[in-house]
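Repro:
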Amino acid sequence: MLRIHFTEVDLARTRVAQRPDPLWEIASSLHRFQTRRGRWAYSGWYRSTAQRLTESGLAPTVRSLLLPAFPRAAYYPDFLTPPEAQEGLAAGLEAILATPRDRVLREVALVPDAGRHPWLPRLAEPERRGTLTDALRAYHETAIKPYEDRIQARIDADRAVRARAFLDGGAEGLLAGFAPRMNWRPPVLEVEHHMVGGDLHLNGRGLVLLPSYFNWHSPVTLADPGLPPVLVYPLLHKAPPDPAHGDGTRALDALLGRTRTAVLRAAAHGVTSTEAARAAGVSPTTVSFHTRALRDAGLIASERVAAHVLHTLTPVGAALLREAGRAPRTAPGPAACAPRPGTRREIDAGTTA
């Protein structure tokens, strides 16, 4: 159990990131190749990405260089996911290249089975780190970039839920909304983490809550408590409808009515059933019929938040609205985000693929 201690200043400085961190997504997506757990949630991505990696000739580099550098369910160097990456991939890769030699050697020495990969200590050499950043850039282009719209849509939907919790209960309401993966017991946030325990005192630094599409099941953190505190938490994944079946097309035909279009557009910002009914000009009883159809079509997701049911767009719904020129790029969200130390590891042990 990891216990994160907040002061009033920390609560004021805690925020939820508005976009994915490309290096954390790279790390977590590489973990998806190292276990079968949760494979159902990423099956389409797994198949298409494995094929693209093979066709591009990048697969051997991933196996020999990237997977050993980012072992799943174990420590991997903190310098590989610097806070600068929250400003974009280029900034993150520049921060990796600028990491001092002593820090690289210190962190690489902590990687399990580092002796099996003698090239790891050589990352202290700028040229070797350049080779690594080139591989990370190529992997991102192949495995992450094609899914950027889907990832951002999921983050927008999650932020809509977090915004609702923040507006209803402030920063404490935001933290309480992460149950059951985390438990808010003021002034401590308890995080179930199988590899990291003890107490982390933020001491006025705040916390960046970083939603991750590829993180599965358990929050992850940095190992060094002296680094800017960040807590990477998994987005909720639900079994997607099978696009190979014709049901999706028939369901989309049913969405051409004005009422469902209004509900879908309202869901871009996250709405309760009552608010959706108001936006569509129908009764709350009637709107439930339309939200069910949208949900069955895979265009919205519904989640109970306190006494309300909140409807948000799925990646498919967001893509549909974007194609129609109707959807905003991002939904308004709560203030919240800052990093947290612990150790950057996933928790559940899985079967190596």
